[in-house]
Amino acid sequence: MTNPNERASVLIEALPYMRKFRGATIVIKYGGHAMVDADLKKAFAQDVTLLKYVGLNPVVVHGGGPQINELLGRLNIQSHFVEGQRFTDEATMDVVEMVLSGKIGKEIVSLINSVGGKALGLSGKDAQIIKARRKQLTRQAEENQPPEIIDIGLVGEPTHINVEFLSLLRDSDVIPVIAPVGVGKNGETFNINADAVAGAVAGALKAEKLMLLTDVEGVLDKDKRLIQEIGVDDIGQLKRDGTISGGMIPKLDCCAQAVADGCDGAYIVDGRRPHALLLEIFTDEGCGTAVRRREAR
């Protein structure tokens, strides 16, 4: 874009959104290709920093599955999965915590700080930001028998978010960067799905937006066209008719729960697009698929 008028028009288009969302909390789940590609990582750091500078309050929750797999392999710790979930024993949990709270968290903080932000890396155990319980999976047993409970080790699900502590950070210049590791009532450390943590944080903080960065354009219909908006009440039918399947189901369930808990809207955004966060928040067209209450349409 070389025409000065075109550059100015971009800023003018963003102005009403800056005004509308000033002071709003934006929870961002950072993962996928956006965490791997060097240019996308820098663009993400710039986006988050810009959001803070123009008066929004970004809260970042990050994943790290591929990086965990890499270190487990180097340490010759075998992984196995149960019903699609990584079984997390104590040795695996040590690696998970080391990678998420250490290597990845520090890298994201450094990236944001390098472009002018003030980021702070946190584990969900810090100030008990994320209280959790052991997650239980069940499998249907024989007819007329109770479901079988499946042990997946130290895998957890959020039960409480420390809103008071996060609110202190939100009202400061700090950008929280949270690793999805939680603490149990007896001090246990739990490995938690990053989408689930981001959804729980967005609901607890009554965020304006929950944004899940993914490696897809958004939710696609059966003709592979982008669905720009989905009502929470539509999700069940989309599951039944096969429009959504596989890994998109838990993402939409996470979005629906966040909205039910008080988040204004959730968005599945293509993190492969540079500056996808800014495109979604500050442009008329937006970017990805929005999940909202039906009455918000």
Write the layout of secondary structure elements.
Layout: H1 4-21, E1 25-30, H2 38-53, E2 57-62, H3 65-74, E3 81-82, E4 85-86, H4 90-114, E5 119-123, E6 130-134, E7 137-139, E8 148-150, E9 155-161, H5 163-170, E10 175-179, E11 181-183, E12 189-192, H6 194-204, E13 209-214, E14 229-231, H7 235-240, H8 248-260, E15 265-270, H9 276-282, E16 289-292
Parallel strand pairs: 1-2, 1-13, 2-10, 5-10, 9-12, 13-15, 14-16
Antiparallel strand pairs: 3-4, 6-9, 7-8, 11-12, 15-16
Textual characterization of the structure:
With 297 residues, this protein is of the alpha/beta class. It has a single domain (22-296), classed as Carbamate kinase, CATH 3.40.1160. 38% of the residues lie in helices and 24% in strands. The protein is built from nine helices and 16 strands. It has helices at 4-21, 38-53, 65-74, 90-114, 163-170, 194-204, 235-240, 248-260, 276-282; strands spanning 25-30, 57-62, 81-82, 85-86, 119-123, 130-134, 137-139, 148-150, 155-161, 175-179, 181-183, 189-192, 209-214, 229-231, 265-270, 289-292. Helix 2 (38-53) packs across helix 4 (90-114) and helix 6 (194-204) packs parallel to helix 8 (248-260). It starts with a helix and ends in a 5-residue tail after the last strand. The relative contact order is 0.16.
List keywords for this structure.
297 residues; globular; 38% helix; 8-stranded mixed β-sheet; 4-stranded mixed β-sheet; Carbamate kinase; alpha/beta
